[in-house]
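The passage that follows is intended for readers who have already worked through the single-chain material. We present the inputs for a multi-component assembly, then the predicted structure in tokenized form, and finally a short commentary. You are encouraged to pause after the input and sketch how you expect the pieces to fit together before reading on.
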Amino acid sequence: MRRILITSALPYINGVKHLGNLVGSMLPADVYARFQRSLGHDTLFVCATDEHGTPAELAALEAGQEVATYCAEQHEIQKRLGEGFGFSWDWFGRSSSEENRTLTQEFARALWRNGYLEVRTTRQVYSHADKRFLPDRYVIGTCPHCGYERARGDQCENCTRVLDPTDLISPRSALSGSAEIEIRDSAHLFLRQSAFVSRLREWIDTHALDWSPLVLSIARKWLDEGLQDRGITRDLQWGVPVPEDIAEGKLSGKVFYVWFDAPIEYIGATHEWANASSNRRWKDWWFGAAAQDVRYVQFMGKDNVPFHTVGFPVTIMGSEQPWKLADQIKGFNWLNYYGGKFSTSAKRGVFMDAALEILPADYWRYYLMANAPEGADSNFTWEHFASVVNKDLADVLGNFVNRILKFTHARFDGRVPDEGVYGADEHAVAEELSVRVNQYTNYLEAMEFRKATAELRAIWVAGNEYLTKAAPWTHIKHDRARAAAAVRMGLNLVHIFAHYAWPFIPNAARIIHNAIQPSPEVIPWPDGDMGQALNQLEPGLKVTVPEVLFSKIGDEQIEAWKARFGGE
RNA sequence: GGCAGCGUAGCUCAGUGGUAGAGCAGGGGAAUCAUAAUCCCUUGGUCGGGGGUUCAAAUCCCUCCGCUGCUACCA
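Having made your guess, compare it with the prediction:
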């Protein structure tokens, strides 16, 4: 049995995620995890909330809560929404967990021992009014190059020049607006990424043929431009504390930077998963010989690619311990909303909670994966969404299921008929489907989700074509046996459609499956022989007609949602 | 500014050297089991502009135009 380890980029704790966040990480990871389980492989799919850092502290402040309380609440919200979308996590952890704290500190100790961490003194902006150090972007002032008055300390939005907060003229806090700030020297740990350029390049080159151009080009760009050492600690309260035994306690009271501990939480979440039950061995998925046969696949948006091709691998390589590196990194572009970005502050676009409020998860899952931003950024519009949902889900799939089941009830007492034998039409559809299913399986294996959904749709279309050709409603008038064979085939088609659709639309797939017969927890992938797969239902089996599977989206709804969600 | 990606039918996209494709939308027809759902046929593109390499270019090279993203302390 193959073993597959799947992680998706960790959603940041700060607020509900939008559809663009979903489609690039958690959703494709879930589809892939379901597919691998369906094939019968030993699959572990973990995710977590990424909880540390300044934005979390500030969001808690704004909510008037302790940051730990805030994170605990937000974690529950994100967990519930993820479950609402049908994410089949084996574990949804927290980067603030005990397990991750221990692991993060252990990684840091190993890096320190191996000489890959060094202490450097940096100049940090401290705000008296806010009683805290400010990250560069939270310092604003006048740009020394162009005179723009609201330049951020990391970069001037007006002239796009990269800045240092100490460059700014009349700097002030972006939080309080206070100019009572000072530059303080502060010691920080730097990860010597520069020492790993050749090892990283070697690793990346071994994947020159199996990683996408998007991922490879981002990874190589960072190496080509000269990898800089990176500060991995911050002057904050909320985070994994730097242990006292590193650098003789010089970093006492500081925490690790969120981008250091967040990817380690992939391992941490696995540890949490194991701690939640006996007989689970977390290290067998990650470490040494026991994890040798594990294939590790990561899903993420393109913004996260550098951290997974450079930052996290350096942490692992620098530990000089046999932790697992990713075998496959699947990166996605952005999903836009009417040509612009999804925006929390502008209330523009659709967020997970609102999405589930207006339509069931499967509608979103199917549409988003069918239009996943794989090759380029893609675009969400309500018009397109409605046309895809109405045509593919309601008309092509939903109506197919409905028409054959209703006919079975009208003419065959709601049972799988036992009369008649399969003829040329039945053999033809079995043959077509064996080709298409093979393609579909290959696309999923290759994580080409747009092509996979197009093929899945073509499989449903083949069912409609067959039924039109076999026309049991015509034959029933003079040749009941022939009509019976067609109905039997139709029901078998419904049955396997439920199986193949399960990774994308798990809820609808289960309803369809249950209309024929009770479904197992994991709906298995029918194996190769299509002739057999399409002749497996026992004659006499009672089938039921489910409620309408997918209702159509009307023009009034499109207009209402455009108004509500800020589409033009 | 640098780097990367994109520009193919009205729309969303596939196609990376060998006679331009799919889905949707549009037009015509068949069928009447079904959520007026399905099936068949079909209209439609000088593949962003220009130049070059080649027997052959959407595909390779150069150049121009347009759009988007990234640019290291927002994640």
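Commentary: The first strand of chain A starts at residue 3 and ends at 8. The two ends of chain A are 50 Å apart (CA to CA). How closely did your sketch match?
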